[in-house]
Amino acid sequence: MSPWTCPNTKCTYDKQLQPGQRCPLCGKEAMEFKFGEFGNLLKEKDDFKKSVEITKEDEQVLARMKFCPKCGSTNITFPIFYRPSIWKCLDCGYEGALIVENGKLAEKIQQDYRKTRT
Predict the structure, then answer these.
(1) Which one of 11, 17, 27, 78 is least enclosed by Cβ atoms within 10 Å?
(2) Helix H or strand E segment including 5
(3) Per-residue pLDDT tens over the stretch 75-102
(4) Inter-CA distances, 48 with 10, 35, 45, Å
């Protein structure tokens, strides 16, 4: 007997279902797969899970990064170690207490900064 499972490759549910049963996560009706097709489907689902995990890790890294509010660069430091509230950008020369920690906002700042420089 061939296995029945959720046919949606973007659904993380990979357990076997009964004929006519719907996936508890996405609601698609279970389909019958030959063993070779079933293996390929599980591989595609696993690849999708990994890509989602990588995206979440990238977002977490961007959330911890600090960006220059003038040019959006990550090449920043605090030049006076006993006053770490003052930041200095090594690309544009910005010095100040304000720092950007939002990666999407930093991308917009970088685009605007490039437009003004050209």
Answers:
(1) 27
(2) strand 4-5
(3) 988 776 666 678 889 999 998 888 888 8
(4) 6, 20, 5
